[in-house]
């Protein structure tokens, strides 16, 4: 048969590999080893490589992070001394690639002194070191998944890799005859009770010397693995980047601190009575952060703000619509009253809200809606009194209130930005102490913004005295509100009207002699 040199030269390919059927019958008779790196991210401790050693019989794996490839010789020699003392076996062979870390003179001399045979793969033939190459892939896949799932920064890759090896050594597989590498190597059955999700929140107990008796005795940390030298967990304190090793640890396995990424800053609202100070603050913020000036506020915490020439209109129509969507009442028939004075007789055919949980959720959400909807305050207050055990009639009343909101979804607060206050008193209304009760309320335009009902501190000897005390408290509160509005550049050029129904108290207030 003629030999075509051109074909042999130009059509050369790798020869297929036969499946390996040879397997060591005892631990340490053959070890596979390889070096991985450099890592694209330098570890927190400065590591850039790692060395793995795999036992051919048990497939048990050891992983050693390294700064440099030249560290292989010292690590490997220390490992030989350690593992031979921990077991009743001697290392007979090792199989590696032809990397310079394995072919160095010092490494070769030490193997010869210990009588260990060194099997080296052919150049550019990693398939001959397949056990180590496949172990790399298994470790990387496992660690990469843990880092991604927990959102742990890549600089903690050494902790993820060592944790991955800890888990792999405790997993049975077909390669190990459905036994674990730990069991085959050290004849120890693994205990899985100590395993925890990598990257989850943990709370290690702190020693007494690290805190005072009034300070917390634990802090939230991140679980980043198992200590090889201690029977405990490695807990990362992300505030100072230190690792706490402890066995007294509680875990919160549904929380991953690194997933709690800093939220983008919400739209801040800046206000004040000094325009120069505001401009200076905005200029400083622009130098530190990427910001955009959005002009006057038109929405704040879900409240729509509409600016008119002489007033503001506040509404929560979008928020109210979301509540209707949650209860599937967007297309319901509207009602004109938020509640009813006569409780109707309910029949079994009446469609109500599904359960008590929905009742509590919607009623609680309605309390926020009362900020711009005082017309529903009384109805919401009644419904809130039955949160613990809502009955059928209460679920009916809640649905009725939502139907009222459907017809008044555009309602809100409209204010002329002018203050007015009303004052009154109940003289000697307490039959026991004979103390009077002061009551006053202040409106901004047509909307009430402040109110107080409070028993007076001393006994008033006449209705005039009790009314005057209430009028004085109302005036003080009104002056404070006036100054507060001035900070928002809402000024009152005219005197604020304070109303009182007692002519004697008004006369006292108007007489400057009594104001000394």
From TrEMBL:
Tell me which UniProt keywords the record has, alphabetically. Hydrolase, Metal-binding
Q: Which InterPro entries match?
A: DNA/RNA_pol_sf (IPR043502), Integrase_cat-core (IPR001584), Retrotran_Ty1/copia-like (IPR039537), RNaseH-like_sf (IPR012337), RNaseH_sf (IPR036397), RVT_2 (IPR013103), SH3_retrovirus (IPR057670)
Query: Pfam families recorded for this chain?
Result: rve, RVT_2, SH3_retrovirus
Q: Name one GO biological process term.
A: DNA integration
Does Cell membrane count among this protein's keywords? no
Keyword Thylakoid belongs to the record = no
Protein name (record): Putative mitochondrial protein
């Amino acid at each position: 048969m003629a030999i075509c040199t051109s074909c042999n030269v130009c059509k050369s390919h790798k020869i297929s590999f036969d499946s390996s059927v040879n397997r060591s019958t005892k631990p340490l008779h053959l070890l596979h080893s390889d070096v991985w790196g450099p890592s694209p991210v330098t570890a927190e401790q400065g590591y850039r490589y790692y060395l793995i050693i795999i036992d051919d019989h048990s497939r048990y794996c050891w992983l050693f992070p390294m700064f440099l490839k030249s560290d292989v010789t010292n690590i490997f020699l220390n490992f030989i001394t350690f593992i031979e003392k921990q077991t009743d076996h001697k290392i007979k062979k090792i199989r590696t690639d032809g990397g310079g870390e394995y072919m160095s003179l010092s490494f070769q001399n030490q193997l010869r002194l210990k009588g260990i045979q060194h099997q080296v793969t052919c150049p550019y033939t990693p398939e001959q070191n397949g056990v180590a190459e496949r172990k790399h892939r298994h470790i990387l896949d496992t660690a990469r998944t843990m880092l991604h799932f927990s959102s742990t920064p890549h600089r903690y890759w050494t902790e993820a890799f060592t944790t991955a090896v800890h888990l792999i050594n405790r997993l049975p597989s077909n390669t190990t005859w459905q036994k674990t590498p730990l069991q085959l190597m050290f004849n120890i059955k693994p205990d899985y009770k100590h395993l925890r999700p990598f990257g989850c929140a943990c709370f290690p107990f702190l020693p007494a010397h690290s805190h005072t008796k009034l300070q917390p005795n634990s802090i939230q940390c991140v679980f980043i693995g198992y200590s090889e030298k201690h029977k405990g967990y490695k807990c990362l304190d992300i505030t100072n980047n230190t690792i706490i090793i402890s066995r007294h640890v509680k875990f919160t396995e549904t929380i991953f601190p690194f997933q709690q990424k800093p939220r983008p800053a919400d739209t801040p609202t800046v206000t004040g009575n000094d325009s120069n100070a505001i401009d200076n603050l905005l200029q400083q913020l622009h130098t530190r952060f990427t910001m955009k000036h959005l002009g006057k506020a038109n929405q704040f915490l879900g409240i729509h703000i509409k600016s008119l020439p002489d007033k503001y209109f506040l509404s929560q129509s979008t928020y109210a619509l979301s509540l209707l969507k949650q209860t599937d009442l967007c297309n319901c028939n509207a009602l004109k009253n938020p509640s009813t004075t006569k409780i109707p007789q309910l029949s079994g055919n009446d469609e109500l809200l599904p359960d008590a949980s929905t009742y509590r959720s919607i009623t609680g959400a309605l309390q926020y809606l009362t900020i711009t909807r005082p017309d529903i305050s009384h109805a919401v207050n009644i419904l809130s009194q039955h949160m613990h055990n809502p009955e059928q009639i209460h679920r009916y009343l809640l649905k009725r209130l939502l139907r009222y909101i459907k017809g008044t979804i555009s309602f809100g607060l409209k204010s002329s930005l002018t203050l007015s206050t009303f004052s009154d008193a109940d003289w000697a209304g307490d039959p026991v102490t004979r103390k009077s009760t002061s009551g006053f309320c202040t409106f901004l335009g047509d909307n009430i913004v402040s109110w107080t009902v409070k028993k007076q501190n001393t006994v008033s000897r006449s209705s005039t005295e009790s009314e005057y005390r209430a009028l004085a408290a109302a005036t003080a509160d009104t002056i404070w509100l006036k100054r507060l509005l001035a900070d928002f550049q809402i000024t009152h050029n005219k005197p604020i009207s304070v109303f009182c129904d007692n002519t004697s108290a008004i006369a006292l207030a108007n007489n400057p002699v009594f104001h000394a």
